[in-house]
Amino acid sequence: MNAAAAESLRPSDEEEAQILDTIERWVDKEVRPIAKKFDQADEYPFDLVEQMKELGLFGATISQEYGGLGLSATCYARLVSTISAAWMAPTGIFNSHLIMAQAVERHGTEEQKSDLLPRFATGELRGGIGLTEPGAGTDLQSIRTVAVRDGDHYVVNGTKTWITNGVHGTCFAVLVKTDPDAEPRHRGMSLFICERGAGFTVGKKLKKLGYRSIDSAELVFDGHRVPAARLVGGEEGRGFQHAVGGLELGRINVAARGVGLATGALQDALRYAQQRQTFGRPIAQHQAIQLKLADMATRAEAARLLVEQAARKYDTGARCDLEAGMAKLYASEAAVSNSLDAMRIFGGYSYSVDYDVERYYRDAPLMCIGEGTNEMQRIIIARQLVQRHPA
Ligand SMILES: Cc1cc2nc3c(=O)[nH]c(=O)nc-3n(C[C@H](O)[C@H](O)[C@H](O)COP(=O)(O)OP(=O)(O)OC[C@H]3O[C@@H](n4cnc5c(N)ncnc54)[C@H](O)[C@@H]3O)c2cc1C
Question: What domains are defined for the chain?
Fold first, then answer.
């Protein structure tokens, strides 16, 4: 579908504004009040997941023709920032699920789309993406999970790790080698939609610094039989492009989370700086604190504008890896810097679990790692610069 046709199937600006308004109210009523308790207990937010289903979040970017909300990337990014300003972790529940859905919608066969997308949109089937392995993260082409054809099935063997929704999700887009000897290596890679079942189990839930409550797990494939009809696009050798193509929206999402975290840290610090008194006045009146607040606000705003720019370009259907890379790089670093500055402004109380800033500080570094590390973002940005501006 071209960009104009996709645009005509999207909700109107007023409808998107209403959706954002509903999300803001939901965040204030249901998300913010439970964030601290669930994060500290590392407890899975089952009730929030049911509410997310009702809000349509599992179909947020799936087209309306398949039962999704069909939101623009611009609206989606705002929605993610709004949730992340209160609690970043729950956005992972639907974001990696939507990257799987996007791979099916963009590259799947008609049969795969009509079978899977409506069930993804309701959250009946939900999960995420399985790319990373114990021995391969950034260098995805060195994965070792293999799928070997056997009649009208493939047999999958291997281990994935760090997979978001790995415990509570039941369905994953799994990157494998169908031809481990292929050169270049990406020509031997394929993407399958695997549902949990015989030979596909959860290895272990991983304990983490931050991004708690949300399950990150190892997935083990031991002779798992996946129908050949679940090979995305029906053709071997396209999996790397299908997986990496989905990362543009993934990067906009991570960047939007960074905006949320940077903004949440700023808002908390701004409030605290006006309440906390030293030497007879609020610390917001000390210049050293003012400098921090000014830098924090500037970073949050610059990050927001970069994300808006990348999302708007994505919505036109144009290639936007430069813009998405810049947004992801800047917004994630802004989240890290703002959470650290908020810690300094809170002084000793930043170390207390009674305040949210310690959570921002633990959650923020993930944004520099997920959907391509920031080192790799710089390389992608530089390559694009050279391509777009040949000497
Ligand atoms: C909480 C969490 C959730 C995650 N969720 C998922 C998920 O749902 N699905 C999934 O598939 N993966 C997931 N991941 C994995 C994540 O995508 C990887 O951790 C990430 O891609 C980096 O891979 P790595 O950890 O193997 O680091 P490595 O690839 O080992 O990199 C280590 C360091 O070397 C740098 N580096 C590597 N190669 C180069 C190079 N050529 N030039 C310069 N620097 C380089 C990296 O930037 C990094 O700083 C998750 C990770 C975490 C922590």
Answer: 3-126 (1.10.540.10), 128-238 (2.40.110.10), 246-388 (1.20.140.10)
